[in-house]
Design a protein that fits this description.
It holds the Pfam family DUF4200. This protein has 428 residues and is mainly alpha-helical. It has twelve helices and no strands. The termini are far apart.
Length: 428
């Protein structure tokens, strides 16, 4: 079918329409027919037809055919399909918008992560530069320490050099003259009258050189650049050695080593003597403390003995006063003496035992007293722990004996009450 240019343009326009504006051919035909009917109705409309009553009457007589219902359903279906397509398109648009928002968020996070990585990388570079600078400073300090150590070695070699060769070097310029005087003093001290005095002087010079090197090391931090310049200028000078034979240096070193070993041995001997003295002092102190403790214990024991003897003396005086020899009758005194002699003999037999010889009362009392003193001395020699254990056992026995006596007395009183009760019952 060949289309005219106008129809072709209309067809292209319809193809370019959006989805929700596209319609089917049936819909277009129905739409054109309805448009034509509306135009015809508008042209043929009369004032009588504009009357509302007339319009109602015409609507009552209007018959709806099946074709119009089918068209209505078709329109509704097309409308539903259009709405559905619109809803689908809107849903897709919303999904696309959400995806766009999510992509924007991811982009923002990626930019932030990139910034953080950039900052971390810059910090890493700064830290790396700092570590590099510190490592370089450490290397510089190490090399400076090595340089100072080499200078000390140089001073040591100059100090050990022979005097006549050091004198030849002292005929330089003015500064060399001043340095020559200093080295000449060192060399004079380095020629020993004996090994010990020479070694002590060399050690003193070494200590002075160490002090100067330590002072140079402390001042190194304040003026690093001048020190480096002077070191470079010193390094340009050609070092001079004053030993023609290496054996000379070895001999001097061996001599110094022997002196050092002798000093070390003397130091060890002194330390051992000091340690022995400390041990002796500690033993003496412990011995004095133990003796003072024993003397104190003996003093306490003697004081207790004196106190007991004093109490005993007072008790004996009271007993003597109770006798009243001038007030009692001779018969009573004789009876009392016989009773006392019997008690003394009984105590003597219990404490000392039987004797073949007939002893008087005073002799028996003297023997008993000596035995008692001996027992007291033996008791004082018993350790306090055993004494306390024995005292506790004795106290326990005494309490048991008192309890038994108390029980016996209670039983006796109970028997007496029972007996009296029986007597009263018999009397009734």
């Amino acid at each position: 079918m060949i289309l005219c240019p106008l129809s072709r343009q209309e067809h292209q326009r319809k193809i370019a329409l959006p989805v929700h504006e596209k319609v089917t051919r049936t819909h277009r035909m129905t739409q054109s027919r309805l448009t034509k009917e509306v135009k015809d109705t508008a042209v043929s409309r009369t004032p009588q037809q504009e009357n509302p009553s007339r319009r109602i009457y015409m609507l009552k007589d209007l018959h709806i055919d099946k074709g119009s219902m089918k068209e209505y359903i078709t329109k509704k279906r097309e409308l539903f399909l259009m709405e559905y397509s619109l809803a689908v398109k809107r849903g897709e648009i919303q999904l696309l918008e959400q995806k766009a928002i999510e992509e924007e968020r991811k982009l923002i996070r990626a930019e932030k992560f990139l910034e953080e990585n950039t900052i971390l990388f810059e910090d890493f570079l700064k830290e790396n530069d700092k570590n590099s600078v510190e490592a370089i400073n450490i290397d510089i300090a190490k090399y400076e320490d090595m340089l100072n150590e080499y200078k000390k070695y140089e001073e040591f070699l100059l100090m050990l050099s022979q005097p006549e060769r050091s004198k030849s070097t002292s005929s330089g310029d003015a500064q060399a003259m001043s340095d020559g005087k200093h080295t000449e003093k060192i060399k004079k001290t380095s020629v020993p009258s004996d090994r010990r005095s020479g070694g002590s002087r060399v050690i003193r010079e070494l200590s002075s050189s160490r002090e100067t090197s330590s002072r140079n090391k402390s001042s190194r931090q304040s003026n690093k650049t001048p020190a480096l310049e002077t070191d470079s200028s010193d390094g340009e000078k050609e070092p001079e050695l004053f030993f023609t034979d290496p054996q000379e240096l070895l001999n001097v070193m061996a001599e110094l080593e022997e002196q050092t070993l002798s000093l070390i041995q003397n130091t060890r001997d002194t330390e051992e003597s000091l340690e022995d003295f400390k041990q002796t002092a500690e033993l003496t102190r412990k011995k004095i403390e133990s003796e003072s403790k024993q003397l104190k214990e003996q003093t306490d024991v003697m004081m207790d003995t004196i106190q007991r003897e004093t109490e005993r003396t007072s008790q004996l005086e009271q007993r003597c006063q109770l006798f009243g020899f001038g007030k009692n009758k001779p018969e009573d005194q004789d009876n009392t003496l016989e009773l006392l002699s019997g008690k003394v003999e009984e105590v003597f037999r219990c404490c000392v035992g039987e004797t073949a010889a007939n002893l008087s009362i005073l002799q028996m009392l003297t023997t008993i007293e000596g035995k008692l003193v001996e027992l007291l001395e033996n008791a004082e020699m018993i350790p306090r722990e055993r004494m306390s254990i024995a005292e506790r056992a004795q106290e326990k026995e005494r309490r048991i004996r008192l309890r038994d006596d108390k029980i016996r007395l209670q039983m006796m009183h109970q028997e007496e009450r029972q007996r009296k009760a029986m007597e009263r019952s018999n009397k009734r």
